[in-house]
Amino acid sequence: MTNPLLFLLAAATLVAIPGPNHLYIIARSAAEGRRAGFASALGVETGTLIHVAAAAAGLSAVIAASATAFGVLRYAGAAYLIYMAYRTLRGGGDDETPELRPQPLRRVYADGALVNLLNPKVVLFFLAFLPQFVDQHAGAVPLQILVMGLVTTLIGVVSDFAYVLAAGSVGRWMRERPSFRRRQRLATGVIYLGLGAAAALAGPGPRKTA
Q1: H-helix or E-strand containing 167?
Q2: Distance, CA of 44 to CA of 209 (rounded, Å)
Q3: Is residue 165 situated within a structural domain?
Q4: Domain total for the chain?
Q5: Which of 156, 183, 184, 210 is deepest in the core (most CB within 10 A)?
Q6: What is the DSSP letter of 201?
Q7: What confidence tens digit (pLDDT) does each residue in 16-51 have?
Q8: Is the pLDDT assigned to residue 14 strictly greater than 60?
Q9: Contact 36/102 with Cβ under 8 angstroms?
Q10: Is residue 12 part of a domain?
Q11: Domain-located, residue 108
């Protein structure tokens, strides 16, 4: 790895800036509480670990280079996010208590993993970012990518948990006020719809993902 300190600074900066994964985690934390937020964050980072393994094995490059594979990934991710928006907007309970019904934590975890796995921008992120710090003379390139990916994932966990704590506090305040419940549910559904649209429109260029 070339210049580890520069890599750490760059990774921390890129990961900490709010992106699609953070928006998903914030929406989940605000709507269902911190436990759901932590479960969704762990799911997202589990997806990141799979992306890291794929990048180290060269699979990410194959997906990015194939218009068909990239398109399938893109539209599958968009469809799943739109399905989550539908599930959120129609599952709000009756008119007197229009709140979100908490999902089992294993479902929340699985949702987080799928949202990240089906996000084509994450594939492009690892293709654009990690190779910049690979040292061709420092040993096996896949191992370097794997190590840098693990470090990036750990930074992502810390960043995600910080967003969970902040959004969970705001969400609890909102849930204690019935007048905000419908707005909260609608806002969560709109966020999922927006993320689905962003995934569907994801282009071939590398962008911020975490």
Answers
A1: helix 141-175
A2: 12
A3: yes
A4: 1
A5: 210
A6: T
A7: 877 778 888 988 888 888 999 999 999 999 999 999
A8: yes
A9: yes
A10: no
A11: yes
